[in-house]
Amino acid sequence: MNINSAEFRFSSSKLSQIPDDGMPEFAFIGRSNVGKSSLINMLTGHGSLAKVSGTPGKTRLINHFLINGSWYLVDLPGYGYARASKSAVKEFSGIIKNYITKAKKMHFLFVLIDSRHAPMKIDLDFMNMLGMEGIPFGIVFTKCDKQSPRQTKTNIDVYRKTLGQWWEEMPPMFATSSEKRQGREEILSFVEECLNR
Ligand code: GTP
Ligand code: MG
To answer: Which residue's CA is minimally distant from atom 26 of ligand 1?
Structure first.
């Protein structure tokens, strides 16, 4: 899929603020600092559509970007970042859970995972929750340029093994680097397939 236009549309702090114009939504989520904003900019080809930050936890609202005038790319707040207070974490996870379980137009959720790290409880808990809620999702491994392709493959295999403890079927997985524009075609083709279904 070619990205001909990408425009920021609105920020919301709760589900009820999101205008229901019937367009399909593809959302992106992950721990703070995982590279969500960078990935969104890389996918859309806009250097600064989403704000890349040195301060974890910058994206605190649900941001909607209209792509090609026909679907929304949705940037969700990061879950579980270290610097937020406990009550803030709770509040955000409320917003997130409300959105992902109730947004009628959310077609698919991309969960971002830093490709360098061993599986973390917070991510596994989150994905198990998605599984229980029946939310369609895939895993985007980020920052693959920071290690060898071989190491990335090894780490992804560990993920498969870990998830295999609970699940028979694996979610779609994408190895990406925003620096190297790796994984862009794969993710955009996947979205296109979902849209044509
Ligand atoms: P919050 O919105 O604060 O939760 O963070 P985020 O998940 O949006 O992460 P962001 O895109 O702001 O990136 C965090 C840091 O990682 C920045 O310093 C980025 O430059 C860096 N980064 C993101 N993606 C990549 C990547 O693919 N490769 C490399 N080398 N660095 C990356
Ligand atoms: Mg961000």
So the answer is: 143
